[in-house]
Amino acid sequence: MIGCHAQRAVRSTIAQDMLELVHEQTDLHEQQQSQQQQLREAATQGGLLHVNMPDPLLQWLCCRYAREGKGTLLPGVARCKHTQIACPHAMPTTNRTDLTDQPLADALRLAQLLLGMHGTAARSEAEILLAAVLGCARSHLYAHSNQTLTATQAVKFQTLIKRRAAGEPVAYLIGMREFWSLELTVSEGTLIPRPDTELLVERALLCIPKDAALRIADLGTGSGAIALAIKHERPRCHVIATDISEAALSVARGNASRLGLDTVDFRCGDWCTALAGTRCAVIISNPPYIPDGDPHLAAGDVRFEPRTALTPGPEGLEAIRLIAAQAHVHLYSGGWLLLEHGYDQSAAVMGLLQDQGYREITAHTDLSGHNRVVQGRK
């Protein structure tokens, strides 16, 4: 336990560091080495301090201490002004980098810092990873917050946190992603299903009467997310799911079998080539649409996803243009084509459908207010 004098020294050092960070935006590593050393010495005397940090730079400082194993500062719950630092009583701990024998609650708090993220996002990701290690529901982490980690569990959890901090997507780390309330297996050979794509499913379902037995095609199915969501909601329909990747189709078939939706017709082929001799009432696709060279391809989770599922070429519209032309041949008269696209591509996609003779062309916005889906009728 850190004594009162040590706590006061830490409070003073932190407050001074934080004030200079906020007002001068200086580099702590170069400008505040003396004060950092005081903080390290005080924080490693045997306590776990809780500090309120409303500024990203303050979070960065505490994350660095945690990663160095020289003391851990955990964000408090109450909000404070930038010029105020709240340091409640210290909590004893034996080793702030080894999670063995640590209660779940403390392991989660430390994981949040090691992830270098803010608020609910860091907490949520830490909970997902810890629940995967323990093989339990996230609710278990709250109901049994005093449960301690075994050495094996601690190593697994720390490994996952380290990989996530390096940028690997949570979905790949645990091998699962929820889409349309369906738990889907994903792999590094499949695109990770995203919430925005649920808009594509919503719009497609509006084109398919509930009791209809229509033929529906999902082009570039990946993990099978769209096709399986449609089959789940419209069980009488004959759903075809195509992909050029046999590895992706293997994942999709596994998902279909596990979810009891194994009547989906999986076919290997590039876009509509797998539909040879087949006509459909609705064709759906979430094709690659990010222009090659777009800086987003080198940032965040997408760095780890298959590039062919993200970008079709320098323009970003190459796959959409091809699908719009091919799908027209494979749709019944009055059939619908629905396409997901980039946030700034709506007008271009609508123009492509118009050029191919589609009618009743409309655009639809995602949860962020961006146009994300265009649909047109043959």
Q: What are the secondary-structure elements, in order, as H or E?
A: HHHEHEHHHHHEEHEHEHEEHEHEE
Neighbour order of strands in the largest sheet: 7-6-5-8-9-11-10
Shape: elongated
Helix content: 40-55%
Strand residue percentage:
15-25%
Q: Largest beta sheet, briefly?
A: 7 strands, mixed
Count the strands? 11
Average pLDDT works out at: 79
The stretches of 5 or more residues where confidence is low (pLDDT under 50) are 1-61, 63-96
Radius of gyration: 26 Å
Number of helical segments with 4 or more residues: 14
- End-to-end C-alpha gap: 73 Å
Strand-pairing-aware structural class:
alpha/beta
Main attributes of the structure:
7-stranded mixed sheet; alpha/beta; 378 residues; elongated; disordered N terminus
Task: Please explain how this structure is put together.
- With 378 residues, this protein is of the alpha/beta class.
- 42% of the residues lie in helices and 16% in strands.
- It has 14 helices and eleven strands.
- The protein has helices spanning 4-24, 28-31, 33-43, 56-68, 104-115, 119-134, 138-143, 151-165, 170-174, 198-206, 225-233, 246-258, 318-330, 346-355, and strands spanning 49-51, 73-75, 176-179, 182-185, 215-219, 238-243, 265-268, 280-285, 331-340, 359-365, 371-377.
- The strands form three sheets. The protein has a seven-stranded mixed beta sheet, sandwiched between helices.
- Helix 4 packs across helix 5 (104-115).
- The chain is elongated.
List the helices and strands and how they pair.
Layout: H1 4-24, H2 28-31, H3 33-43, E1 49-51, H4 56-68, E2 73-75, H5 104-115, H6 119-134, H7 138-143, H8 151-165, H9 170-174, E3 176-179, E4 182-185, H10 198-206, E5 215-219, H11 225-233, E6 238-243, H12 246-258, E7 265-268, E8 280-285, H13 318-330, E9 331-340, H14 346-355, E10 359-365, E11 371-377
Parallel strand pairs: 1-2, 5-6, 5-8, 6-7, 8-9
Antiparallel strand pairs: 3-4, 9-11, 10-11
